[in-house]
Amino acid sequence: MEPFVKVQGIVAPLPRANVDTDQIIPKQFLKRIERTGFGEFLFFDWRYLDDGKTPNPEFELNHPGYHSAKILITERNFGCGSSREHAPWALSQYGFRSIIAPSFADIFYNNCFKNGMLPVVLPEKTVEELIRRAEESPGYSLTVDLEVKKVYDQHGWEMSFEVDESRRERLLKGLDDIGISLRYESDITAFEARRPAFLDRQIAQHH
Amino acid sequence: MPKTIFQKVWDAHVVHEEPGEPALIYIDLHLIHEVTSPQAFEGLRLAGRKVRRPDLTFATMDHNVPTTSRSLPIADPISRQQMDTLTANCREFGITLYDLHSPRQGIVHVIGPELGLTQPGRTIVCGDSHTSTHGAFGALAFGIGTSEVEHVLATQTLPQKRSRNMAIEVTGSLPPGVTAKDVVLAIIGKIGTAGATGYVVEYRGSVIESLTMEGRMTVCNMSIEAGARAGLVSPDDKTFDYIKGRPFAPQGQDWEKALEYWHSLRTDDGAVFDRTVTIEGETLAPHVTWGTNPGHVVPVTGSVPDPDSFDDEIERRAVEQALSYMGLEPNTPMQDLPLDVVFIGSCTNGRIEDLRSAARIAQGYRVKSGVQALVVPGSTAVKEQAEREGLDRVFTDAGFEWRESGCSMCLAMNPDVLQPGQRCASTSNRNFEGRQGKGGRTHLVSPEMAAAAAIEGHLVDVRTWDVKGSI
Ligand code: SF4
Questions:
Q1: Closest to B248 (Cβ–Cβ): which among A26, A196, A202?
Q2: CA distance B119 to B116
């Protein structure tokens, strides 16, 4: 996994609350069996007009000022809905490395870390202010620094954020969760030996 | 120290724990389906890893399967490729698969309980957010992403932070015509779509105890729509009776041992919850959503809200966006909205009891002309059971379409899709923009409400329905 230490980039504003994973990546694109190629379908139903080809000029991310954005800033409960990891895949393959919001849905938040993307929780008032800045001056950029747990701009504004320490470690180093868990393989084997036999017996008979 | 059922199940599954780190917890049952698994298997192959416990892993096909006749080839080549990939992966890694032609095929959250795989005290995961359904049996069940699917395949464990614990208590009893679906819609309306984020919810109180297993599954199913990590109900005799004799239920001495363990899975008196929410059953009515998330809900006798009645600026904007998407004017009575499509099915309300309830309303009536009404059983076994009971005839006589099982119009990945602007009363769980098709407008309701709506061509209050049938 790509480590995340510090990312500086243009901020794209998406002033909508409760953006769900069906919006982030509509289901017609979930049929791929690969892990790549989702970026072009990000926010598909919002991004394109009904013909599915013409960019919708009303949609925030289609503004030329946000084209190379690396940071998405949006409102509360971002990523609610389904567990599809295609949502963080689409966001990261589109080019986002960090998402700032007042709150995130649980599974989505978790999925971001597995894909080298950092979700940052900031207070609602701050988010509103940052959205305003990004809207007023497209090209406004921020730095998200995981090492020092701070977000800052080039004009002296900065704010700290909280992140679970073990998640931070894993992301800073780009560690693979499976590799870490397999260090405890002997614990897993020992646990399996103490599980009550009835848990597996009927299943075994059926196989 | 007194413990909640969540704490008991959690503690029984900790494999390894260190301060400041997530705990490594053991997974007793892993369910997989065609959409969220291909990349996980690919990851295993790339890393040269095996599936640790293929015997605790079960697969089915549900999300993008067609619901027209199973004898036809699958028209969509990409859907077919996804199903073929699952077949190949299950063969390669030795995993049991209930494919399209298996009598055990069905929506993953319908077949787990049906086969007796879902049992109290188990940890159950699936790459699907509605895995919370299995919590109805007192299991700790939650949805995971594809990276975690790969993690469970490789290690049969997951690193997890212990969630906080919430009690949602539904007291008293339900008035006639009010169902489990209405209970959970009312809960989400009350606490909001992020109201339970970070929590495992235990549903309790006399209303929950009085629900059937199907009803409890409906409630637990929608936990995720309130943001919860999982939802569960303490198991009781109803739970044990439901499981007994199912294909994967413990037998003989094992049954006795299991039962003894299961009886211990109740929240102890004096156990402490981080938060408690109480709802009085008597105050509930049939509910229906008006907007674009499940928290946008009112009693069926209510009206579309006025954005100006919301104090919170962000909420007001969200309501305006929702009304514009839904094509609704503020203050329109919900029962005045004309419908184009009715969908009865999904892992929320696609079980045999749901179909019985809908058939009871539909019997002796005809679907309003111009309305397309679909009944999609949650599993092949549900379909066969319904046919044995003659429910298929009740539906087809009334002008409903009777389909093969699958997720169908719950997420419209298969050919069952709303057209832009179409308005649908649906027994599924999500009314997000475009969920049932781009531009489609979803109103979530109970199976009874959906059946009545199909017949009248608009939403109606089932409490006033003249039941003609004998079901
Ligand atoms: S029925 Fe709907 S919610 Fe349930 S598993 Fe299928 S797509 Fe998901």
A1: A202
A2: 7
Task: State pTM to two decimals.
Answer: 0.95
In angstroms, how far is CA A83 from the centroid of its own chain? Answer: 12
- For chain A, domains (ranges, CATH) are 6-175 (3.20.19.10)
- Secondary structure string (H, E, C) spanning chain B: CCCCHHHHHHHCCEEECCCCCCEEEECCEEEECCCCCHHHHHHHHHHCCCCCCHHHEEEECCCCCCCCCCCCCCCCHHHHHHHHHHHHHHHHHCCEEECCCCCCCECHHHHHHHCCCCCCCCEEEECCHHHHHHHHHCCEEEECCHHHHHHHHHHCEEEECCCEEEEEEEECCCCCCCCHHHHHHHHHHHHCCCCCCCEEEEEECHHHHHCCHHHHHHHHHHHHHHCCCEEECCCCHHHHHHHCCCCCCCCHHHHHHHHHHHHCCCCCCCCCCCEEEEEEHHHCCCEEECCCCCCCEEECCCECCCHHHCCCHHHHHHHHHHHHHHCCCCCCEHHHCECCEEEECHHHHCCHHHHHHHHHHHCCCCCCCCCEEEECCCEHHHHHHHHHCCHHHHHHHCCCEECCCCCHHHCCCCCCCCCCCCEEEECCCCCCCCCCCCCCEEEECCHHHHHHHHHHCECCCHHHCCCCCCC
Strands A150-152 and B14-16: unpaired
What are the φ/ψ torsions at residue B342 (nearest 5 degrees)?
-130, 130
pLDDT of residue A205: 75
Strand B14-16 relative to strand B23-26, pairing: antiparallel
Contact assignment for B26 to A206 by CB distance below 8 Å: no
Flag whether pLDDT at A2 surpasses 90: no
Distance A135 CA to ligand 1 centre (A): 37
Cα B25 → chain centroid: 24
Do A82 and B128 lie within an 8 Å CB cutoff? yes
Pocket test of ligand 1: the residue of B132, B410, B442 to mutate, having most ligand atoms within 8 Å of its CB, is B410
Contacts of A198 (CB under 8 A, 6+ apart): B250, B254, B255, B257, B258
User: Backbone phi, then psi, for A19, in 5-degree steps?
Assistant: -70, 120
Rounded to the nearest angstrom, the minimum Cα separation between A155 and chain B is 27
Task: Give Cα separations from B118 to B104, B115, B299, B348 (angstroms).
Answer: 14, 8, 33, 16
Residues lining ligand 1, Cβ inside 6 A: B 62-63, 107, 109, 128, 130, 346-347, 407, 410-411, 428-429
Q: A166 and B20 in contact by Cβ < 8 A?
A: yes
The residue whose two tokens read 């095929």 is B105
The nearest alpha carbon in chain A to B12 belongs to: A195
Determine the pLDDT at residue A91: 98
- pLDDT score at A207: 59
Q: Which residue has the tokens 């599974």?
A: A107
pLDDT by residue (tens digit) across A50-78?
A: 899 999 999 999 999 999 999 999 999 99
Chain B residues in contact with A115 by the CB 8 A cut-off are 147
Cα angle, residue B435 at apex, residues B431 and B439 outer, rounded to 5°? 95
- Nearest partner of B405 among B41, B54, B102, B86, judged by Cα: B102
How far apart are the C-alpha atoms of A26 and B54, rounded to whole Å? 31
CA-based radius of gyration for chain B = 21
Q: List the Cα angle B409/B445/B297 in 5-degree steps.
A: 115
Task: Indicate the SS3 state at residue A9.
Answer: strand
CA B89 to chain CA centroid, Å, is: 26
Instruction: For chain B, list residues with pLDDT below 50.
Output: none
Report whether A76 contacts A124 (CB < 8 A).
yes
